Amino acid sequence: MKFFTYIMVYRRFLLVVLTVLVLLPLPIVLHTKETECAYILFVVAIFWLTEALPLSVTALLPSLMFPMLGIMPSKKVASAYFKDFHLLLIGVICLATSIEKWNLHKRIALKMVMIVGVNPAWLTLGFMSSTAFLSMWLSNTSTAAMVMPIAEAVAQQIINAEAEVETTQMTYFNGSTNHGLEIDESVNGHETNERKEKTKPVPGCNNDTGKISSKVELEKNSGMGTKYRTKKGHMICKLMCLCIAYSSTVGGLTTITGTSTNLIFAEYFNTRYPDCRCLNFGSWFTFSFPAALIILLLSWIWLQWLFLGFNVKEMFKCGKTKTVQQKACAEVIKQEYQKLGPIRYQEIMTLVLFILMALLWFSRDPGFVPGWSALFSEYPGFATDSTVALLIGLLFFLIPAKRLTKTTPTGEIVAFDYSPLITWKEFQSFMPWDIAILVGGGFALADGCEESGLSNWIGNKLSPLGSLPVWLIILISSLMVTSLTEVASNPATITLLLPILSPLAEAIHVNPLYILIPSTLCTSFAFLLPVANPPNAIVFSYGHLKVIDMVKAGLGVNIVGVAVVMLGICTWIVPMFDLYTYPSWAPAMSNETMP
């Protein structure tokens, strides 16, 4: 038993050592550049999938192994670890830092929820809309972490309001006490977690028999210690949690900066196909926003039906008086919004810079009209989305937020300096350096595959797939990515598969965007498990959900996501990039094969 205990304790160490040793015959026996690169690719892939080493540490392995095996010189590998992507990320994080520092994100979320109303169905749609909108500009993780406490407070208020209504109704019928209440509190001397209460008919309510016999379940959640007066209350809590998790992921699909997988794809694509110049902030938003909107609405319908039922007549009933629960819910949201006070100068400046950044991104090269990049026609392609991000990012360090004062010996208060919207220390605390290194490792890995000829070899070996219908190839790759991303991190998944899917598209003579766009979008569809992505883990930690709840709900959202992506890639995305034609900017595959 001790032997197995030691194995479990040192399993990550053993996995690292065994992986390196077991795969070592591959470069030793064949001894070609392709096999040596394949060896590194397999080692990195296994470490990423199993997380035997931290993802960022694994991402540094190409910088160590490529020079040692003679695939790329160290200076060339190092240059892959900092590219245009990293400059774009820095600018976006400056915006996210200011938004969260001055609570602008909370004001936006609460205001959007107040607009849609407090009916449970519309309330969840309001939370999903505000979460998705924030996730377009902030990281999915920080969005979920910010919105979830608000949703939790609203859900608990609904439960408390239901308890208050029930108490009021029973007091009205029975007087000051409720003698008709029967509670089975113990089984074998211990209190149970679920209780059933039988209540007498409530005046004003009727059914076919003229009487109501209702069962009220009181559930106790062991993780949070939260009591649910009814099963519906528990379902509302589950619904709120999943709405926040899934909408934060779906919202990230709509912009290049919305999630790390989009950024990784954009940088990889622009590096591999520099002559394309068809992928920018505006073009990405144009094709991804309709897809994300459809996924969001269908996911809302699916989750609503799964947990509360989807009563269309009840939802659209006009002139209906608000229930006590809805009034209490509205009051909570209103109080939370009032706590923020009137909008401040710092929030206004952050909002102005936020809007300015979005406008500059959209107008740089919109496609249907010349953008502002045409002003620099002498240097085509020099100004990118990262140029805009850095310009706005620098302004956050320059624009004053408040004056710094000090008291002189005479007692006079004087200003001696000012504090900008964000400081470098605050920026550092938000900057995801681990993602920056992870992405750099992916770029280095892709460069190594190109230098060694492994990409061409993989493409030639996959060329027989050209006999299959293109839609089937896209479906297979999308399902493969969706399955893999449930057990591996999203950035690791997309970084691992891009160097494989690009040669595949070239080998079968298909527009690379035809395969890469749906695969990239599907990389974000990690909805099944709490560990699949950080937003799932955040909402799961509140204790309302079980794994089976997330699996049932996530399976439906996964199906919806893949179906909508397939619909988009076969309809409105086609004319945007002329997907049915093999482009001139994509190289023809060579006939090189592995010796």
Task: Describe the overall structure.
It is a single chain. With 595 residues, the protein is an alpha+beta fold. It contains 27 helices and 8 strands. The strands form 3 sheets. Strands 1-4-5-6 form a 4-stranded antiparallel β-sheet. The chain has a two-stranded antiparallel sheet with strand order 2-3. A two-stranded antiparallel ribbon has the order 7-8. Strand 5 and strand 6 form a beta hairpin. Helix 11 (140-174) crosses helix 16 (324-339) and helix 20 (433-452) runs parallel beside helix 23 (490-507). The longest helix is centred in the first third of the chain and has 35 residues, at 140-174. Residues 176-226 and 590-595 have low confidence and may be disordered. Keywords: Ion transport, Membrane, Sodium, Sodium transport, Symport, Transmembrane, Transmembrane helix, Transport. It comes from Rhinopithecus roxellana. Its main location: membrane. One of its GO terms (molecular function) is sodium:sulfate symporter activity.
Number of strands: 8
Strand count, sense and closure of the main sheet? 4 strands, antiparallel
Based on secondary structure, the structural category is alpha+beta
- Strand order within the widest sheet? 1-4-5-6
Rounded to an integer in angstroms, the radius of gyration calculated over CA atoms is 28 Å
Spatial gap, N to C terminus? 47 Å
Residues in β-strands, percent: 5-15%
Extract low-pLDDT stretches.
176-226, 590-595
Silhouette: globular
Helix content: 55-70%
Mean pLDDT: 80
Number of helices: 27
Transmembrane segments: 42-69, 81-99, 119-138, 239-265, 285-307, 343-362, 382-399, 470-501, 513-532, 553-574
Membrane topology: Multi-pass membrane protein
GO molecular function: sodium:sulfate symporter activity
Protein name: Solute carrier family 13 member 1
